[in-house]
Amino acid sequence: MKRRPPVRTKYDFVRRYRQGEFGNASPTWDTIEEFEAGAYVGLVHLRNRVAGGRTYYDVHSCDVSTRYATALREGVKPDDIYFSAMAPTDLTVFQGEVREDRDHLSLTYSLLAKTMREALSLDCRYATLTEALVLLRHFMCPNSFDWLRHLLDTYDGHTVEFSVYSRDWGTMPRFNTVFWEVRKY
After folding, report:
1. Which of 51, 45, 46, 68 is nearest to 11 (CA)?
2. Do 97 and 154 lie in a common domain?
């Protein structure tokens, strides 16, 4: 299997995420101009290219420009913000982060139907090896599980962040899992 270059920064990740390198994703726009040109209607997530940076959930598409301007006044740099369709948080059944090193698999997860930051702060659970595999296979559809294996095999020593929904959702058909991040930084 061909290894891909490691993901060393969130900026690098976002660029590659938008190119579809990591599989099923949320529809995403790079700039406010690109978002506005797309005429998307629905809830939006203003995301941050800085790891752990401020993020804004559940912004209605008609309020994105105003919320973006507020974020800039709050000190967020224009190049740090990008935009994604808000995932159907209420349909979340399983989410977390998984990492595989040599023969060790570790999973940090939550079963709460909330944004990942909130879910993991309220209900953070851990599993390793067989238990982790059983949970991943149970919640992910076969396409999603196979793609997760591909990501873990292709990005050695990286953490893969994901959310699993009760129905298919994202940029790729027949996937119930969105892969939010692949990172080694």
Report:
1. 51
2. yes
Q: In the 8-state DSSP scheme, what is residue 31?
A: S
pTM, two decimals, is 0.92
pLDDT tens over the chain, length 185 residues: 678 899 989 999 999 999 999 999 999 999 999 999 998 999 999 999 998 899 999 999 999 999 999 999 999 999 999 999 999 999 999 999 999 987 799 999 999 999 999 999 999 999 999 999 999 999 999 999 999 999 999 999 999 999 999 999 999 999 999 999 999 85
Domain extent at residue 168:
89-183
Domain boundary among 42, 57, 85: 85
Tokens representing 139 are: 């919640």
Q: Report the C-alpha gap between 53 and 80 in whole angstroms.
A: 9
The torsion angles phi and psi of 103, rounded to 5 degrees, stand at -105, 20
